[in-house]
Design a protein that fits this description.
The structure holds 2 protein chains of 2 kinds.
Chain A: H1 58-67, H2 72-84, H3 88-101, H4 106-118, H5 122-135, H6 140-152, H7 156-169, H8 176-184, H9 190-195, H10 215-218, H11 249-264, H12 266-271, E1 278-283, H13 290-300, E2 304-308, H14 310-313, H15 320-334, E3 338-342, H16 345-348, H17 358-372, E4 381-387, E5 403-408, H18 414-425, E6 430-431, H19 435-440, H20 447-468, E7 474-475, H21 476-485, H22 490-503, H23 511-517
Parallel strand pairs in A: 1-4, 1-5, 2-3, 3-4, 6-7
Helix pairs in contact in A: 1-2, 2-3, 2-4, 3-4, 4-5, 4-6, 5-6, 6-7, 7-8, 15-17, 18-20, 20-21, 22-23
Chain B: H1 3-12, H2 16-29, H3 34-45, H4 51-64, H5 69-81, H6 85-98, H7 103-115, H8 119-132, H9 137-149, H10 153-166, H11 171-183, H12 187-200, H13 205-216, H14 220-232, H15 237-261, H16 263-293, H17 303-329, H18 332-349, H19 357-382, H20 392-411
Classes of the chains: A alpha/beta, B mainly alpha.
């Protein structure tokens, strides 16, 4: 029996995806997107209301597809159904089939970007979304997802810009919860700014809240344009510190020893001729809080924090990427003391043996030069790099003075998982939750995996709610059931990491992994 | 950086799934990009369970650009990996017809012939490929392999030395050197090469398999088993069957003749034969059990390997202890349990790590039956300790399990029950 509860605000729970096709139009093919969109183009047959379509029955969809294998709306529904069940590989395959039939399909491409985001590959997701938005500027769901991704990187104003554009294109994508979170991250319009000034973001970033046809041109990198638009902004004062990060005590202690204490005892270090700053590499499985702990580190040392994504540096024009990288370092130097955080640093610092093109090598050489402070001193600049694949890093980056301090960020421990469970349950109709008990059943789950468990349970409750027409709470039992269906994504990472730690650990680089896996010899 | 360039970079880094996603994205924009399909197929062919998709991708590239010999050559390599040797050979010949002097096309033909265990012809085509390009890594590695498979140890040693001299950082060259050392009985040198191969490519399954073999070869009995398998693998599957049937016929004739001389000789000979037959099946499991005893070496074993060691090596040990205890103390149920567990080790050796789903079900079912009999029959006899003879059910079930275990030694030679759908 489901529990009734009083006083809980009825909340619109967002579906995992917007790839649903309106039932009344489900057989009609989606419009082709090969031409430039015009204002008169009909709205995309997508729904954003969570209760409009019941959870698709995968078997019946498969049966329907057996009869009509090239039916794009059906394929999209099947892909969504797989997404709802967290069968990411199946979903990816189905969306791939859609693209094989209709290569430009924005729904499938956006869903694939969503999949990448689920897997913690945000930069790649952003790159793809940029393409989708560039080619289909009237496709609201892509803008909305872009807003979410910008928000996840704490670029509030940018997120607000994308969100406003999505809503202007299609009011059905409106999401008050997302808007609230964007506002909290500093994503406010000018009028809102006047009412409530936000000290967190750099004020010189001007956001255009409404759709501007000329906007698309902004994404085009003109090699002759001297002004670098890095789309970067400093957090002047991050309000996240270690107290806001649940659990992960060993990681925090590691960071204190390797970063914070040297900075606090600057004079002592200088007396021994040691430099303050330098580089620290955080590595570990995806979705385990490397970005959060980096931001918290900046909060602890009360430095400005600059997060740099792969998409903000890599440029198709020769020499432009190097220029952008230099500018990023210059910004950090101008704003010292500052923490410069490179997410997915392995892509910028890849092993040169793997490079076929000299362009890639030049960027790596530039990065090494910036880390060494060849053109200007890096005093007061702490460079943090995060990677899921430390084995792909060029060994030159690990030499003294560069990323010479390593911090292994393992999957969240039980305390951290408990905290994550509490945060995820906050504001949702969850009944009888025992966070500690649930966390104990989520060993090896990353933060993203725990989120998937919640989504799974919520989908189940939603399905029930759609049948009964009433709000059905999510129970501990639902969450435990969800935990059984979601496979911890960290295991695959550890399979690879184990091999590197066992066979390619001559320098002791992977000792922490061996220790974590209990494989010390 | 364009999406395609990013995909190439990821592929070069060995981040194949991510590269694959990039290539799919590029193909969404450029569905006529045959080279992208080709790169996609290269990504897929080395990923577990994706060879069929790799074949589809390279065939898409061929549809767009049917005159590119490289695409046909890679198609041949994928088909060989899918154990479709005849088709692989046809594809390789198509590649050669388009580019007769292309080293890759010739190497693809050598590879197809190798997959069909036509070692001598494969060797010839490897040499022809190396004539076109003396530094062709695939042809050079394949040549070392086919020479070893033919038992040409001197030529193999030369080929391996040349490989290592050409590129000491080539993981596959060290794998070849490791197998070469193992075949000539130098297990320490083999271990060094396999470790080096893993240092260079920690995710190389072939190198890890070789390392495990070199660990197993610490036992003299296992080395004898390896010598037997190295001897057999020179021959094609048909010839291997002929050898086994021939050996069985010799065994039957010898047994009958020995019985005429002295029945005890015949019994001893039967036990010796059975020990040899069973050892061939049990050796890898026993090897793994010994590896499990080594704190360092056991890290090389995966979960299936560890289970194999426990089920076979552990089963043999436990079974022997129970059998000896039951016999010494005269406790029939204990003795029966020991026999049951001993018998279970044969199907268990074919269950864990078996690539074939059907094979896992067949041998796993027989293993389960043997375990059930090991529990049920002793319990049945335990309630009738006063009886002079065994319960008829004991005799019946015991015989069925024993026969099933014996049958496994023949079924184990059926490739469909040992190998997966993909190479």
């Amino acid at each position: 029996m489901r529990h009734k509860f009083k006083g809980t605000r009825t909340k619109t729970v967002e579906p995992l995806s917007w790839g649903k096709v309106n039932r009344s139009e489900s057989i009609a093919p989606l419009p082709s997107f090969s031409q430039k969109p015009v204002a008169s183009r009909p709205r995309f047959a997508l729904l954003t209301l969570p209760f409009a379509v019941p959870m698709a029955d995968i078997d019946s969809l498969k049966q329907a597809l057996a009869v009509s294998p090239r039916n794009i709306p059906l394929l999209l529904m099947l892909g969504d159904a797989f997404l709802e069940q967290f069968s990411f590989d199946d979903a990816r395959q189905v969306f791939g089939e859609v693209l094989a039939i209709e290569p430009g399909n924005p729904v499938a491409r956006t869903q694939l970007a969503q999949l990448l985001e689920f897997e913690g590959r945000s930069s790649e997701a952003i790159l793809r979304l940029e393409q989708v938005c560039g080619e289909h500027p009237l496709f609201a769901p892509a803008w909305k997802l872009r807003a979410k991704l910008a928000l996840s990187e704490n670029r509030g104003r940018e997120a607000r810009e994308y969100y406003d554009r999505a809503v202007a294109l299609d009011s059905m994508v409106r999401d008050e919860d997302l808007l609230r979170r964007i506002r909290q991250a500093g994503g406010k319009r000018s009028a809102e700014d006047a009412r409530e000034p936000t000290p967190q973001m750099n004020a010189d970033y001007s956001a255009n809240a409404y759709y501007d046809p000329a906007f698309e041109d902004d994404d085009f990198d003109d090699p002759y344009d001297d002004d670098l638009d890095l789309e970067l902004e400093f957090e002047q004062r991050t309000d996240v510190n270690f107290s806001k990060v649940g659990g992960m005590e060993s990681v925090k202690e590691d960071i204190r020893m390797k970063i914070l204490y040297p900075m606090e005892n600057r004079a002592l270090f200088e007396a021994y001729g040691k430099k303050i700053g330098g580089g620290v590499l955080l590595y570990g499985p995806p979705g385990c809080g490397k970005t959060l702990i980096s931001r918290a580190t900046a909060g602890e040392i009360k430095a400005k924090f600059l997060s740099v994504g792969l998409h903000q540096i890599l440029d198709m024009w020769i020499g432009k990427s190097e220029e952008k990288l230099h500018e990023v370092f210059e910004m950090a130097r101008r704003n010292a003391p500052a923490v410069l955080f490179f997410d997915e640093v392995d892509a910028l610092a890849a092993d040169r043996k793997d490079m076929r093109t000299s362009a890639g090598r030049t960027l790596i050489n530039q990065f090494l030069s910036e880390l060494d402070g060849d053109s200007a001193k890096n005093d007061g600049v702490l460079v943090l790099g995060a990677t899921n694949a430390p084995w792909h890093l060029d060994s030159a980056f690990l030499r003294p003075g560069r990323f010479d301090r390593l911090v292994f960020v393992p999957p969240p421990d039980e305390a951290a998982r408990t905290e994550i469970v509490q945060i995820l349950a906050d504001g949702k109709p969850v009944f009888g939750l025992d966070p500690a008990s649930l966390a104990s059943k989520l060993k090896d789950f990353s933060g993203a995996d725990i989120k998937a468990v919640f989504e799974q349970a919520i989908e189940g409750a939603l399905s029930e709610a759609m049948k009964t027409g009433k709000i059905v709470p999510v129970t501990q039992k639902d969450l435990l059931k969800g935990a059984k269906t979601v496979r911890p994504s960290t295991r695959k990472w550890f399979e690879s990491a184990r091999n590197y730690a066992l066979y390619a650990n001559q320098s002791g680089f992977y000792d922490d992994i061996l220790h974590y896996l209990g494989l010390e010899r | 950086m364009s999406e395609f360039a990013h995909g190439l970079l990821l592929q070069d880094q060995g981040r194949l799934e991510e590269a694959e996603a990039c290539f799919y994205s590029v193909l969404a924009q450029e569905p006529e990009n045959d080279y992208c399909y080709f790169r996609l197929s290269l990504c897929q062919m080395t990923q577990e369970g994706k060879k069929q998709r790799a074949l589809e991708s390279v065939e898409a590239a061929i549809r767009l650009q049917p005159l590119d010999s490289t695409y046909h050559a890679i198609r041949a390599v994928i088909l060989a990996a899918l154990r479709r040797g005849t088709q692989a050979l046809t594809a390789a010949e198509e590649a050669i017809s388009l580019a007769p002097e292309d080293a890759l096309a010739r190497a693809a033909k050598a590879n197809a012939l190798s997959s069909m265990e036509r070692w001598a012809e494969s060797e010839q085509w490897c040499l022809l490929a190396l004539e076109c390009d003396p530094d062709h890594s695939m042809a050079a590695n394949l040549l070392a392999h086919v020479l070893r498979m033919q038992g040409k140890s001197v030529e193999n040693a030369d080929a391996v030395a040349a490989l290592l001299a050409a590129d000491p950082e080539d993981s596959m060259a060290h794998v070849n050197a490791g197998w070469s050392a193992l075949q000539r009985g130098d297990r320490k040198q083999a271990e060094v090469h396999f470790r080096e191969a893993l240092r260079l490519d920690p995710e190389s399954d072939v190198a890890r398999t070789g390392l495990i073999e070199s660990f197993r070869a610490r036992s003299v009995f296992y080395r004898a088993y390896l010598a037997y398998t190295f001897f057999l693998q020179r021959f094609t599957a048909g010839k291997q069957w002929a050898i086994m049937i021939g050996l069985y016929a010799i065994y039957q004739i010898a047994r009958a003749n020995l019985k005429l001389i002295d029945p005890r000789l015949s019994v001893g000979f039967v036990f010796l034969w059975l020990a040899l037959v069973f050892w061939i099946w049990l050796a890898p499991g026993v090897g793994n059990f010994l590896i499990l005893m080594d704190r360092s070496a056991r890290l090389a074993l995966d979960r299936q390997g560890a289970w194999l060691g426990l089920a076979v090596g552990g089963g043999l040990t436990l079974g022997a202890v129970l059998l000896a205890g039951g016999w010494y103390l005269g406790i029939i149920p204990l003795l029966l349990a020991g026999v049951g567990i001993l018998v279970s080790t044969v199907p268990a050796s074919l269950t864990f790590g078996n690539e074939s789903r059907t094979g896992r079900w067949v041998f796993g079912g027989i293993t389960g039956l043997a375990y059930a009999a090991s529990i049920f029959l002793p319990l049945l006899e335990a309630f009738r300790l006063d009886a002079k003879t065994l319960h008829p059910l004991t005799a019946l079930i015991g015989s069925v399990v024993l026969l099933a275990a014996m049958l496994c030694t023949w079924l184990g030679n059926v490739r469909a029950l040992r190998q997966g759908d993909e190479g």
